Amino acid sequence: xxxxxxxxxxxxxxxxxxxxxxxxxxxxxxxxxxxxxxxxxxxxxxxxxxxxxxxxxxxxxxxxxxxxxxxxxxxxxxxxxxxxxxxxxxxxxxxxxxxxxxxxxxxxxxxxxxxxxxxxxxxxxxxxxxxxxxxxxxxxxxxxxxxxxxxxxxxxxxxxxxxxxxxxxxxxxxxxxxxxxxxxxxxxxxxxxxxxxxxxxxxxxxxxxxxxxxxxxxxxxxxxxxxxxxxxxxxxxxxxxxxxxxxxxxxxxxxxxxxxxxxxxxxxxxxxxxxxxxxxxxxxxxxxxxxxxxxxxxxxxxxxxxxxxxxxxxxxxxxxxxxxxxxxxxxxxxxxxxxxxxxxxxxxxxxxxxxxxxxxxxxxxxxxxxxxxxxxxxxxxxxx
Amino acid sequence: xxxxxxxxxxxxxxxxxxxxxxxxxxxxxxxxxxxxxxxxxxxxxxxxxxxxxxxxxxxxxxxxxxxxxxxxxxxxxxxxxxxxxxxxxxxxxxxxxxxxxxxxxxxxxxxxxxxxxxxxxxxxxxxxxxxxxxxxxxxxxxxxxxxxxxxxxxxxxxxxxxxxxxxxxxxxxxxxxxxxxxxxxxxxxxxxxxxxxxxxxxxxxxxxxxxxxxxxxxxxxxxxxxxxxxxxxxxxxxxxxxxxxxxxxxxxxxxxxxxxxxxxxxxxxxxxxxxxxxxxxxxxxxxxxxxxxxxxxxxxxxxxxxxxxxxxxxxxxxxxxxxxxxxxxxxxxxxxxxxxxxxxxxxxxxxxxxxxxxxxxxxxxxxxxxxxxxxxxxxxxxxx
Lengths: 384, 384
Fold this sequence. Notes:
The structure is a homodimer.
Chain A: H1 2-23, E1 38-39, E2 45-51, H2 77-91, E3 95-99, H3 111-124, E4 129-132, H4 144-152, E5 175-180, E6 191-197, H5 217-234, E7 247-250, E8 266-267, H6 283-290, E9 293-298, E10 307-310, E11 313-317, E12 334-344, E13 350-362, E14 369-377, E15 380-381
Parallel strand pairs in A: 1-5, 2-3, 3-4, 6-7, 7-9, 9-11
Antiparallel strand pairs in A: 2-12, 5-6, 8-10, 10-11, 12-13, 13-14, 14-15
Helix pairs in contact in A: 1-2, 1-3, 2-3, 5-6
């Protein structure tokens, strides 16, 4: 019964989704329309929706993978689009972060068009969004650089091909975003939450290292220096702070450290192995040393969706979002929400960050919320 | 009986050693006497002696640790000096590499004088030498920078405080040395063997990361770019090569990857744990990607002396050299020798590298040679 309802629901949304898909090519930025500064809302909150592994291809003609037979009728990329639209309506995020494998380029007739369609719900809703690359985004005529350049040309994105002022850096899509305090508060011109985006690459270029790529020293050095610069600014006037502003890090391929957990010490599920490179990039060590990162968010392994805390950093999967991506029939596609909340000051204004919470929502009838947890609170790493 | 002989032998050498120790302060460079270019000998060989963990302090008044009761009579730092003199005479190395904990600074009355004394046999023998820092070298009034600056002021050293042309780099004692081909051969102006030296730091500055420090992104980026530059030069005219010149890497604290082995897949012994940082620096990945490194040589864990091959790179300990360092009574202090041999060309000249062999020698009556093994041959990583 529930399954039948679900099918109807998905079908109903397809009409909206298809309309949006047609509009998507109009959404390409023709002028500079990007939002310049992210900031906390008047209610002291900032909400991020993470969308992992959409695996978008040709829209309506691209079939779903690993869904129940009852769900398979007319199931296509448009179900992915519909899910994203519903999530935007349900959560009204301040930022959407796409953590790679945005498109499944080898099945895309025209990668640029697939990208347009994949991101169209965010563009349509005029919500700021940021994307990084996975290992499938470049598997067509469009190179990784080409994909990233196309992404930054789209409306409402805050994505960048690479940071300015850095000569040579590995990959495409390494950048950071600052989230300033509430307008009118003492923190209105300070970044109270820092978001880092990195390109975790695609496939290992070294024959003796198996399968996936990793985050390289040039990227880590950029991250480290950016973090130091942000920390210096945060701890300076006005509103001098003693501890760094919390940082959240987004990329595609998980770190080997994601394998440190089992069901006794994580929230969520682990239904497949951790598909990182067979060597350790050292990026976990670099983040630990930087001292500001409270959580890392990746995709890549679609049927893992846990968060586990290691050395003061929460390592989180989002779980697979896209219907053309492999998954597990009967195990709903899902997405991760993160909400950061500011401290209320004595003067009925807003101060620095107090709390970071997360939950996931499932693509079912009710967009069911699961696994609500505190990622960080008041300077307590991994606090609950 | 054997033990008695050994005691007499060590005592006999103390006279020479003590004399050298007195001369050591005279050996400080007063003018630029450094050798400018390492190169292979006329016989196509280049030999490196690795000396790990001398733990030198005040010379004659500094007692030995972990020796047999029969060896303990008058045993002091001078036994360390004597061992180094004997090894120089026995092996006639082209380069001596000191891989840190050269002095045990917290027991040194005057760290500069301890450094002078520790390196005096190399200086006295006019043999080029290079040093990196361990975690004990700075445990006195002399900082890590101060220790490294003192080291580079000594005669016959090729050590450098840090590479030129690099703005900011973590640590002190990151540099590389080129070993050119035989004079008069086609490779006389090419580096056919590259030596990298890195500062693996001392103690973790991050409370949540236990005990030891690690090699940072800035150092790894310098290594990576240096390796790329050397590879480009080697594969260019004259004598264009298809594969990079082999590289050997020296530093103090082992990588977590040293824990990948057991007695079934290494040569030597493992009698204690691998004391790396509790996080992975990623330097192993960086070396694997660079593609030229054939072997890594560390110290730090005095009673481990093995070499094990992982992903084409041999990871080697030297075993403890110094008598004031912890060890194992009855298990001889030791040192590692590496010999690189060039290929003979048709024209009875010398070409690129053919073979890298290693063995250890024990501080016993005969300076017994053990564990002879091939580390690399003709482009075959870990070949035997």
